[in-house]
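One thing: mind reviewing this one?
=====
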Amino acid sequence: MKIAFKTIAALLLLSTSVFAADLVNVSGASKIALNGYDTVAFFTDSKPVNGAPNITAEYKGATWFFASEEHKKLFTENPEKYAPQCGGYCAFGVSVGALFPVDITTWQVRNDKLYFNLNHDILKKFNEDFDGNVAKAEANWPKLVKKHAK
């Protein structure tokens, strides 16, 4: 089972794109963050909301979509508040020193920060020691940025 998980994780990692020195999880060459979901909506609407391709902002080398001009304004005034932790990569993956893609349905806002995980089993594992895993992710993030940013 462990080997299967590692193999799947490695394959998923290979399908994930990295852009810019800030290391944001983007969709291929399009450089779209969060697969086009509105990052502000996780805070304001408490759910995933598709952004509009004509309401965008650039941040950390990625293009962010928003559902409304109001959401775009909130983001551009304070992007650090609304941008997901770990560059939008799986928070548990970062806590163990790896970059995994995410399932958008694993989102959670805790302590005013947005987190995603690979899948619901990993989300559960991440939340078993939320504070400890966040601390590990924060410690690992600079090393991952240095290693994977282009």
Q: What stands out?
A: The beta strands are 17-19, 24-27, 32-33, 52-59, 62-66, 103-110, 113-117. Confidence is low (pLDDT under 50) at residues 3-20. The radius of gyration is 15 Å. The helical segments are 2-14, 41-44, 69-77, 79-82, 91-95, 120-128, 130-148.
